[in-house]
């Protein structure tokens, strides 16, 4: 199942990226992504929830992200922007997923699709967003090993 969820995130970030760059209807983006044979391996419900959630909430998500980036949103790499949107959407609306998992997935997505050190930037921004939107979870003491 986790592979399906990871694949869902991979396709969702690609979908957000395409949507941001081309400004085409989200259903056209989905149609394009479905042409990839690997699409059959994803958790489609999760993919749909993430992609549609980002599209529906992009203004709110961008506002939250803008507080923690060191440049105007328009100057972010499109991959980093897509990953930050997806990760922030998950932090806000997928409370069943631990924040550490969301941050780790965002870092891995950036390593896969982004530039050389983009994952470090995404990690730093996601840490700050998580501290704001999931403060109780972030500040909860870790159980001893």
From TrEMBL:
Which Gene Ontology terms of cellular component type are present?
Answer: cytosol
Domain (NusB/RsmB/TIM44) spans 6-130
- Spell out the Pfam families in the cross-references: NusB
Source superkingdom: Bacteria
Gene Ontology MF: a single term: RNA binding
Q: Which UniProt keywords apply?
A: RNA-binding, Transcription, Transcription antitermination, Transcription regulation
Q: Which GO terms describe its biological process?
A: DNA-templated transcription termination; transcription antitermination
| PANTHER family, per database record | ANTITERMINATION NUSB DOMAIN-CONTAINING PROTEIN (PTHR11078:SF3), N UTILIZATION SUBSTANCE PROTEIN B-RELATED (PTHR11078)
Family stated for the protein in its record: Belongs to the NusB family.
**Role summary:** Involved in transcription antitermination. Required for transcription of ribosomal RNA (rRNA) genes. Binds specifically to the boxA antiterminator sequence of the ribosomal RNA (rrn) operons.
Name of protein: Transcription antitermination protein NusB
Organism of this sequence: Sulfuriferula nivalis
**Organismal lineage:** Bacteria, Pseudomonadati, Pseudomonadota, Betaproteobacteria, Nitrosomonadales
């Amino acid at each position: 199942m986790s592979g399906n969820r990871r694949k869902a995130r991979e396709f969702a970030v690609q979908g957000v990226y395409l949507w941001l760059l081309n400004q085409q209807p989200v259903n056209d983006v989905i149609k394009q992504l479905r042409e990839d044979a690997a699409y059959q391996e994803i958790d489609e419900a999760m993919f749909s929830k993430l992609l549609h959630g980002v599209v529906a909430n992009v203004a709110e998500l961008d506002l939250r992200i803008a507080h923690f980036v060191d440049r105007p949103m328009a100057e972010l790499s499109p991959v980093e922007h897509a990953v930050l949107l997806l990760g922030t959407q998950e932090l806000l609306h997928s409370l069943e997923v631990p924040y550490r998992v969301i941050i780790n997935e965002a870092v891995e997505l950036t390593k896969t699709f982004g530039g050389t050190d983009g994952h470090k930037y995404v990690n730093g921004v996601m840490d700050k967003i998580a501290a704001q939107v999931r403060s109780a979870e972030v500040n909860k003491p870790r159980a001893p090993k």
